[in-house]
Amino acid sequence: MKPLEGFREFLRDETAGAAALLVAALAALAWANSPAGDGYAALWETEAHLGPLELDLRDWVNDGLMALFFFVVGLEIKRELVTGELRDRGAAALPAIAAAGGVVLPVLVFVAVVAGGEGAAGWAIPAATDIAFAIGVLALLGDRVPDSVRLLLLTVAIVDDIIAIAIIAVVYSGGVSAAWLAAALAGLAGVFALRRAGVARIAVYAALGCAVWLAVHESGVHATVAGVALGLLTPARPVGGRDVLALLEHRLHPVTAFGVIPLFALANAGVDLGGGVLGDALNSRLTWAIVAGLVLGKLVGVTAAALLASRSGRIRLPEGVGAGQVVGVGALAGIGFTVSLFIASLAFEDGALVDQAKVGILAGSVISAALGAAILLALGGPQAPSGQGKPR
Fold this sequence. Notes:
Blueprint: H1 3-32, H2 37-44, E1 47-50, E2 53-56, H3 57-82, H4 89-114, H5 131-141, H6 147-171, H7 178-196, H8 202-219, H9 224-233, H10 244-268, H11 277-282, H12 285-310, H13 323-332, H14 337-347, H15 351-379
Antiparallel strand pairs: 1-2
Helix pairs in contact: 1-2, 1-5, 1-10, 3-6, 3-9, 3-10, 4-6, 4-12, 5-6, 5-15, 7-8, 7-9, 8-9, 10-14, 12-13, 12-15, 13-15, 14-15
């Protein structure tokens, strides 16, 4: 599969997956606030043991199935690094700088608003961007938005994911077991050795990948990191005449887009807004810190970083992308739904704080989506890039 074809297929799946994600999120909210709301909480807290693993259903989704999602993210990162937009350091510089600005400023805004209170552990929540929802909003705008804007948003979100994954691995992991971590590293080394030996059977890697996931889970490092590591180890060039990465992404991306992520939303987006929960959230610094981080921090951080970089004389905006469209991309980057919810589940054990964080994530993501769509609609089509220097 050619890189451009892979990019377009990825966008199609993300766009359609965004609809499934939205339906699941709304279903979770409706269920949690219905007369059957107690059943919602009880279902996801049901214990489901497997061997040494004692997890409830929500944990199986968040630790198990989400590892598959992060594996696909790892595949996409690898493809972009080897054959996509991120393979060229010049082309990768702008989205990397924009993404960095879109992580640092939301965190600073969050820290300033939460002011060291009990929600301080959630500082990374507004740092994430939800690729599916962001691309889905662009799809609703149709041909009013050129492919260059979609590509810029996608690459910014991918770099954003790389940073978020690193934060999860370093900050939101528990006490690390050296023995289990060594076992995980040995498993990854085994995957690398099989690659070098030219083994192309996917079933072999799947079995070893499950063992790596178990070892990472038991090590104290969050289990989803195993998915990313395995994705990055997947060869991006043909092995034995088979394009393994493209094959895996073609098979698994629909599974994660239409299965794993909607199920994650169903398990995590439901918050009972009754009993004073909504009032508590609206009076919570944590809620408003997340909203401010997603809406203001992302927009200003991405936009300022990208435009300042484009004025340096070394980096240019993509052809057909103007300053106004960069602002629109910055706004859409504030849609932090999936990974933000995921980080919130890792950051807090107190159910009240989790609910406040969910309200902030939902509100911030909706505002960012509406704001980004309004900005791009107001532009009315491609613009000539402005304020960018010529490469030296």
